[in-house]
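CO-FOLDING WORKSHEET

Operator: S.A.
Ligand of interest: pyridoxal-5'-phosphate
Run index: 425
Mode: holo prediction, single chain
Checklist:
[x] sequence pasted
[x] SMILES validated
[ ] output reviewed
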Amino acid sequence: MQFKLSAFGDRYATPSGITALMDDLGRAMSGHTDMFMLGGGNPAHIPAVEAVWRQRIGEILADGRAFDTMLGDYDTPQGNTGFLDDVVAFLNRRYGWGISVDNVAITNGAQTALFCLMNFFSGPAVDGKQRRVLFPLMPEYIGYADQALDPKAYTARLPRIEECDDGHTFKYHIDFDTLELSNEIGAVCISRPCNPTGNVLSDGEVAELANRTAARNIPLIVDNAYGAPFPGILFTEATPPWGEHTILTFSLSKLGLPSTRTGIVVGPTQIISALTSMNSVLSLASGGIGQAVVRPLLRNDAILDLCRESIRPFYEAKSLQAQAWIREAFGNDIDYRVHKSEGALFLWVWLKGLPIPARKLYERLKARGVLIVPGEFFVFGLDAPWPHASECFRMTYSQADHHVKAGIDLIADEVRRVYRGAPAV
Ligand SMILES: Cc1ncc(COP(=O)(O)O)c(C=O)c1O
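OUTPUT RECEIVED:
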């Protein structure tokens, strides 16, 4: 039996490539504890950080009233009023932005906020014209790909590729010479640090994007899921931008709290008010547990120490270690380059001249017990396929060391087999 669905229902009832891939990753993992999961985006379990969250839950439990309120009351659709005040005070102290509570809304994860934003700025507009969200630097976060309801919602630009002198590193740059913001562009969006590549656009590049979007009176959406000031998984200097054309999304997930589903949006009052309405329509209010857990750490700035002393060094060491293992395992016979690792949880590996598409390499690796995400899935909004993406894959280095090392060794072995023309196992 098949119901007749609306275009909206059909959009999600028909599995897209990405939902099928995610499902595949999930199924491959379930019941296979010997699988090396380098495919997902789960944050690591960092003991020093987990201890802080455990202590906070203990404090909330010990204060009966705080516990009962946290579980038993809906917050306002904009967020918990105390948490909103603390976010505003924290960001103003840290960056001197001069924002007010009308500039902040809480959502059930940054993902939900981004779903709303993608649809606020793409599709048919009130003036009847079609608007699109521009991604100025492909590849981009897989999670945006299926968010927009309008099939023509996205447009994207390819990067300028810098191959670094060391022979095994590269970096993507926005090609500002060809980047034009035509009238159909409703917003520009970047993740910073970028998931999947680990790229971090410099403050200068972000300022250039901000100037260009402001000149067109459209917003620049900066997805800060890994960025400053929290979780601060940044191995280079980067300050979040702020201005009347900027929309910043933050998340508590990569602080080690993904299951609290807490996103924070800082933006112009018009957009915060629209997000607040969306919250009340979609979910009445956002979950309050993450807000209650993190609140005192914003108040006394302890969150900054936690990020600086425990989170950033943990991921930076993991990234360097994974790169060293790649160098060791790939040697000089595999023609590979790893994107400069400047933040986030991933390495983006380019296998130059790979004789099969990355999608096929993914299948072959899955059969050998290691999961990666093939590059093709991080590319959307383009008019034509981009062969470069089929030579790339994303792997996370946030998992246990022995998994990462064993996964990398298997990848190197399978890549050599592919180059030799050996069949899949
Ligand atoms: C770049 C990026 N943006 C947004 C999100 C969504 O985060 P949340 O868990 O807050 O919904 C993620 C999650 O992995 C991400 O990688």
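REVIEW:
The pocket of pyridoxal-5'-phosphate is lined by residues 41, 109-111, 141, 143, 191, 195, 223, 225, 251, 253, 258, 263 (CB under 6 Å).
The radius of gyration is 22 Å.
[x] output reviewed
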